[in-house]
Amino acid sequence: MKRSQSTPKSEAARKIDIRGVAAKARVSIATVSRTINHVPTVDPVLAARVWSAVAELNYFPNTQARALVSGKSKLLGLIVSEITNPFFPELIQEFEQVAVERGYEILIGSTNYEKKTIEQCARRMLERKVDGVAVMTFGIEEVLFERFAVDNIPVVFIDAAPSRPLSSVLAVDYRTGIYEGVQHLAVLGHRKIGFITGPLRLRSAEARKAAFLDCLRSTGLKADPAWIIEGDHTLDGGRDAMQKILALPQWPTAIMCSNDMTAIGVQHALFEAKLKVPDDFSLVGFDDIHLAEYTIPPLTTVRMSCKDLALRAVNDLLSHLQDSPAKPEAPSKIITRLIVRQTTGLPKDALADLPGKSTRKKSRE
């Protein structure tokens, strides 16, 4: 029987491999391999021809085969605390964008602060043979150090980490942003400022509280222990903490929060109590999640850039993966700064004693 000739349609249906890309681009297979693996020394003209052929042929590299050949999975792990906090999806988006630009895919794990889940995250990363892991949990879990250290997997942590090869730290400058927040409130005339912390078992929450107290002292203000309430970085935690403050015989005139989710919960508690921001209380958050700009009124907050965190984390991991990795001399510093919106204003009745102003009795004072 005479074999039928290939039609253009059947030709198009054939599976395209790296040899087809090399033929189309008129380059060697090695050049195609180096190009799709983002090797920077490839001639730009040849690389452009390769990418043009990849697009025209709709070629998808076999990542598993590449991993077997190179010994690298081209996969970076990202472990976060809780996916329900809007800060972390924003961080994941930025991390993935930076990683993909550098030729890597990402594997995501969320711990929910549970030891069993933390161990499962570590196991998944090891089973998939990730090239490096960014632990963006804002809480140090020792089990993660041990798990990844055994396989010599580079790890980047936030805030603090044991000194070991292939590890580095992203040090968040909590003090600068919180100091700007305290100074902003003090300039507005606030002398009674409360603070709702995160879970104090977390190093980051303790660091934010310590920064707040230090900034109060440096500004010459006193901290009332009754106005320092432990929260849990959630909406419900912010509402509950604010309800505790409202039950006190005396109120502060301003509240700072350890994160934006807490601050939004505070806003809801004040709405339920028929109180207004900033008329009755000024309010400052921390993180500057995207939602902060859309609360009513928009939230004054301390920005900790997800984009900056993601960029530094990926860069640190890739520096460890170099043939001759250079250990960072000092932790990468993540800058924070105050973003002033509309939840801060003068203390209640601050202008009541001016001529032509009616005097109102201060609530709970």
UniProtKB/TrEMBL annotation:
GO molecular function, one term: DNA-binding transcription factor activity
Keyword terms of this UniProt record: DNA-binding, Transcription, Transcription regulation
Domain HTH lacI-type, first and last residues per copy: 21-70
Domain of life: Bacteria
Keyword Oxidoreductase attached: no
InterPro entries (alphabetical): HTH_LacI, LacI/GalR-like_sensor, Lambda_DNA-bd_dom_sf, Peripla_BP_I
CDD domains on file: HTH_LacI, PBP1_LacI_sugar_binding-like
Protein name per Swiss-Prot or TrEMBL: Transcriptional regulator, LacI family
Source organism: Granulicella mallensis (strain ATCC BAA-1857 / DSM 23137 / MP5ACTX8)
